Amino acid sequence: MGKSRTSFSWDRLIDFLLPIVAVLAALLVGAVLLLLLGENPITAYTVLIRGSLGNVNGLTQTLTKMTPLLLVALGICIAFRGGMINIGGEGQIILGALATTAVALAFPTWPRWILLPVVLLSGALAGAFWGGIAGVLKAQLDVNEILSTVMLNVIALQLMNFLLRGPMLDPEQIAAGTNIAQSAALPKQVWLTRLVPRTLLHSGIILAIILAVLVYLLLWRTTVGYRIRAVGLNQSASRYAGIPVRSYMALSMILSGGFAGLAGAVEVTGVHHRMIEGLSGGYGFSGIVAALFGHLHPLGAIPASFFFGALLVGADKMQRTIQVPSALIIALQGLVVLFVVASEYYVRKRSRRRVAVSSDEPPSDEPLADASAHLGQEVIGV
Amino acid sequence: MKEFFTVAVLVGIAHSGIRLAAPYLFASLGEMVGQLSGVLNLGVDGIMLMGAFAAFYVVFMTGNLWLGLLAALVVGALMGLLMALVSVTMGAEQGISGIGLYLFGLGLSSLLFKTMIGSVESVSGFSTLNIPVLSNIPIIGPIFFDHSVVVYLAYLMAPVSWYLINRTTLGLKIRAVGQNPEAADSLGVSVNGVRYFTVIYGSAMAGIAGAALSIGLLNVFQENMTNGLGFIAVALVYFGGWRPFGILAGALLFSTVNALQLWAQVLGIGIPSDLAVMLPYVLTIVALAFAVRQVRQPAALTKPFERGE
After folding, report:
1. Cβ–Cβ gap A151/B285 under 8 Å
2. FRET partner for A280 with CA separation of 20 to 30 A, picked from A30, A63, A99, A100?
């Protein structure tokens, strides 16, 4: 493991560059699309970059959008590394946000130093619970986690619709008769500190970056993390090595859901200060894109989510100033995913060549040695 | 509550239920063929959106409904070609490439709609085609024989798919490729060729499913108008145990609950309909956990095939 990290190799450089090439290719396709639609791609991309990175205001918005993206992406890193395809980020964000709101509104008199950690933790726990349903169903009853997370997304959405129109509806909305589906405002002591005055940028970004480092340490410096990755790479080898595979499958979904839930909690306490409809904002999917772009590495997820945060902010600016629909960026995200997973083909072909040189099947007495040899290559393959 | 259970309302609900199953049927039965050959296409929702837009745009411009349907078919097939390229040839992880395809279709259909049409417009879609004599039967007639041709086509897809899978050589090849690609390959079946066919076919059906929404049922196009329907369509394939008539039953379950909710809203009945709407999704999870386990999924599902190991 250590050897491949220290020594320079062209293969590793190419692996590192592949996602960047994927993004450039996607932007190129986007430019052609814009040309076909009669828009000027250079103007559009200039507005996009200036709007998201060119001034303090844009930059703070980018960092604000980056926060939930990074948190979701961290969870995705854990799940995908553990061989679990978690596409339930949207539902887990919603559950996290709902729990945060409910707990904060239930104990409005508690002091900040206790209430804030408690509400953030409730958000993470609720997300972990929602992800855990899919994880346990997969581990115990072999229910495809892709399908169960899709279903759980819809259920979470309906639950939110029900709560925000019924039990959690803002009393002020009822009094005014407007009935906009949102909760009451949270007590001020759970609002995250604003880092730059008159912007939305809040201390959640610091929390997210600290957690990125912690997730890195978890995955690469602890036994638990090693086992999560081993299970993701080779279940039968892990089983032979005595790892309780089912428990680790469930665990990676629980952790993954926890981070998405925390993203919801941070959106509520940092940005909106109440639960609103549409709070999940597609972060559950964009987080997957960011995680893949960052090589499913927690530290790679930091620049990746910054980049996709900038794209989202820039897309809004583009739509408002030159009327190029921001939907363009969603399409480009899709292309980035397609290009990144397709480029794995190349990586896999090469590593197969390398494996063919040594041996094809893992020797039965040392199965995990084979798995850890793969771990060293840090292939995105799930 | 009393007015809810009149004959007229119940007939209305049943009629809507039958009607709303059409997009599920096209999408799920197409997806089923792909899955039987071993490819999970999770991008159905994005393909449906592209199909819905293509059909809507063509009908908006030309007024020709069949041309609209053809456009949805072609656009769906092209999306399928992209999926096949990434998932079959490049052997990408299918759960993830499907998400990419979904986001691509979601974004592109909105982009095209906003730049090419821009405002909310409606078209005159397929009108209802009363089947003579049968549609005059009381109760049965209005429920089953008072639909547009798109709805009839959707139901026709179930026996057609059954025949394709169980009674044709192609169907045999599809199942062989999904169960044991190595064996199929050694018998001279082109595994990836069959998979290209099934993925493109399934995607073309997903395109039609989108058209069924935009020019068959609703006669408008909106951004993200499928609202996740395509993901449900994928789950229905599992729910139905990879069998056309199982899928038909599942589609009717979802569409009937949708119909109930719509009618409850129209009649202003205060049941917490959001909670009622959760039921089929919960039921699907329960079914996946317990009932569907009895049915074996295609052995090579989500496993890319490469020759010469």
Report:
1. yes
2. A30
Contact A159 B278 (CB under 8 A): yes
B231 CB near a chain A CB, below 8 Å? Answer: yes
What are the phi and psi torsion angles at B84 (to 5°)?
A: -65, -40
Q: How far apart are the C-alpha atoms of B287 and B279, rounded to whole Å?
A: 12
**Among chain A residues, CA nearest to B40:** A146
Please indicate, yes or no, if residue A294 is contained in any of the structural domains: yes
B188 lies within 8 A of chain A by CB: no
Q: What share of chain A is helix, strand, coil (3-state, %, to 5)?
A: 75, 0, 25
Could you tell me the residue range of the domain that residue A181 belongs to?
2-377
Residue appearing with tokens 């595994």: B191
Q: Does residue A382 fall inside a structural domain?
A: no
- The CATH number that applies at residue A126 is 1.10.3470
Which A-chain residues 339-358 have CB contacts (< 8 A) with chain B?
A: 341-342, 344-345, 348
Predicted TM-score of the model (pTM): 0.89
Q: How many domains does chain A divide into?
A: 1
CA distance A370 to A347: 18
Q: Per-residue pLDDT tens for B73-122?
A: 999 999 999 999 999 999 888 888 999 999 999 999 999 999 898 888 88
Q: Could you tell me which chain B residue has the CA closest to the CA of A336?
A: B100
The distance between the two most distant Cα atoms of chain B, rounded to a whole number of Å, is 68
Tokens of residue A281, six digits: 């904002």
Residue at A106 is within a domain: yes
Closest partner CB to B289 (pick from A141, A155, A342): A141
A344–B85: do the CB atoms touch at under 8 Å?
no
Question: CB B107 to CB A141 under 8 A?
Answer: no
CATH ID of B2-294, from 1.10.3470, 1.25.40, 3.30.2450, 1.20.58: 1.10.3470
CA closest to A30 among chain B residues: B108
Distances in Å between the alpha carbon of A366 and those of A81, A355, A370, A373? Answer: 22, 16, 7, 11
- pLDDT tens, A341-371? 888 777 777 776 666 655 444 444 433 434 4
Tokens standing for residue B299: 């052995």
> Parallel, antiparallel, or unpaired: how do β-strands B128-130 and B146-148 relate?
antiparallel
